[in-house]
Amino acid sequence: MVLIRLLKSLIHKRAFIYLLIALIPSLAVSMILAHHTVKVVESEYKLKAQEYANFHAMSIENFVGETVGRLEMLSTAINIQPNNLSDVNKILRETKSKDSRFSGFYWANPSGDVILSTNQMTGKVNVSDRPYFQHSLHTAQTSISEPHYGRVSGRFVISIANPIVTNDHKVKGVFVASLQINEIKEKLSRLVDEEQIVVKDDTGKTIIQTGPIPGNYNVKSSMKVSRVPWTITAFVDPNHKKVFWKSFLTNLIISLTILSILFLLGQYILLKRKLKREKEQTELHKLELIGNLAASTAHEIRNPLTGIKGLIKLLSEEDKDEKAQSYFKVIQSEIDRINSIVSELLILGKPTAYTFQTCDVNEIVSDIEPIISSEANYSNVNITFSYHPEVLLVSCMKDQLKQVILNLAKNALQAMPYGGELSIHLDKHLEKCRITVTDNGIGMSKVQISQAFNPFYSLKKGGSGLGLTVCKRIIDSYGGEIIINSSPNQGTQVEIILPLDSHQSVSQDPA
User: Which alpha helices (DSSP H) does 204-321 contain, by range?
Assistant: First the structure.
């Protein structure tokens, strides 16, 4: 039950983190991008609406212009045959029957009386009160009326008046053509694509509307027509909801995918760090366990060893047999080796309250130079020592630091069984002392380097696997670090980095 509750708590915690890191930001980003997309699309549709308005305004311009041109041609025919109205009437009727845009043709005298009509008139009709008629009569120019219902046809039309002028510049009559609004509407409807068109006059009254204008047609653009006092407005539907949700879902999928990958990557990194910490903790616990075991048993091991060592010495003094002496010598050597291992185990134990001294590293290395040189000569290895010109003061236990350097030098010599080059270099860098031990021996692989400081791990036959572990424990206690760089068959370089202590005086040996 406790495990189940723990798993549920962990799942809820990760779900909450995922909600904060991935889902909520994805929703927010997708919402912002979707609104931005709607604005961009709306701008594009405004341009499109302007194009539609311009196009339809030009269509009406052309339609009216073509009509005016046809009317002027008919006016010329009337002017040529002023006295033969029956022939004129025949021409007008044929024209009307072939061109559906015209509601009718009329010929009115200067008084406004309609004396010729292609539509049947039930009585006398006078158009002198029409503004377009008066404008054409007085200016002797073509005039276009406001939309109105014709007195003869009863249809919703616009009238185009064209004056007939004599050679002495007198108006002898006005030729009027009625243009059906429905024909203009049908022409616009045939040209309409996804837009809706509304045509209004200068008073704001709607003359033509190609279809219903829903409330979502909120993107529009208007254009005035020059030949008639009309305004063309094109409405387009950008379908905001569709654009918004399409953009929102697309961006949500993309952003959620990216943030989910980042979330999983973060979880992987955190898990890797957690595993690394747990591994370090395991190593520390293992080392602590070994240390406790070493501390509790090392002294107990040394006590019988001391007795054995004494007895072996007495026996060797009594028995002078050469063969027995060789046995005593081997036993003595093995006892010394056991003592050495026990000493290393003691260092692995809980740290003793040592009193650190401020020592010069140059001096420490100088003290052990004869020992290392002697072993190097025996191993046919050329060795070089490089001291720093300045005093390198560190806080340490002199004998322990000597043990570390000797151990590293011994490892380097054992890595060169057929001779080679060994160097011990002292340097100062960023207020730290650096001791570098370099050889050109057999080297180590990356896997071997990663396990080098683990207790009881050794590449040497018969090695205890505690040497580097002890070295690291000592250097760590000094606040320093030890780094191994190596490649197989290329040699090994071990760096010891210790903090310098320049505020204390150099300790002197009691001697």
Answer: 240-318
* pTM, full prediction: 0.49
The rounded percent of the chain whose pLDDT value lies above 90 is 13
Confidence class for position 435, pLDDT limits 50, 70, 90: very high
pLDDT of residue 425: 95
List the domain range (segments joined by +) for residue 410.
353-499
The answer as to whether 229 is a domain residue is no
CATH number at residue 121: 3.30.450.20
Burial call 198-219: b when 16+ CB within 10 Å, e when fewer: bbbeeeeeebbbbeebeeebeb
Is the pLDDT assigned to residue 437 strictly greater than 90? yes
CA distance 359 to 366: 12
Cα distance between residue 468 and residue 478, in whole Å: 15
Region of poorest pLDDT, from 26-40, 337-351, 482-496:
337-351
Reading the block at residue 379, the tokens are 């191993």
Residues 317 and 454 in one domain: no
Residue 409 lies in a domain: yes
Between β-strands 219-225 and 393-396, what pairing exists: parallel, antiparallel or unpaired? unpaired
79 and 38 housed in the same domain? yes
Instruction: Yes or no: say if 473 and 481 are a contact pair by the CB < 8 Å rule.
Output: no
What pLDDT score was predicted for residue 314?
A: 79
Residue 497 pLDDT greater than 90, yes or no:
yes
- Residues paired with residue 117 on neighbouring β-strands, in sequence order: 106
Residue 3 has pLDDT above 60, yes or no: no
CATH of the domain at 404: 3.30.565.10
Rounded to an integer, what distance in angstroms lies between the CA atom of residue 235 and that of residue 254?
33
Residues 14 and 37 in one domain: yes
Residues 249, 332 share a domain: yes
Give the domain-ending residue among 342, 374, 402: 342
The pLDDT value recorded for residue 480 is 92
* Residue 136 and residue 173 in contact, taking contact as beta carbons nearer than 8 Å: no
Contacts of 164 (CB under 8 A, 6+ apart): 75, 78, 79, 82, 171, 172, 173, 174, 175
DSSP 8-state secondary structure symbol assigned to residue 388? -
**CA 80 – CA 219 distance, rounded (Å):** 52
- Cα separation, 480 vs 361, whole angstroms: 14
**Are residues 445 and 484 both part of a single domain?**
yes
Three-state DSSP at 392 gives coil
Q: Kindly state whether residues 159 and 256 are assigned to the same domain.
A: no
Q: What's the count of helices (H) and strands (E) in the chain, helices before strands?
A: 11, 17
Cα–Cα distance between 376 and 379 in angstroms, integer? 5
Rounded to an integer, the average pLDDT of 274-297 is 75
Give CA–CA dist 104/95, Å, rounded.
Answer: 10
Contact 104, 96 (CB under 8 A): yes
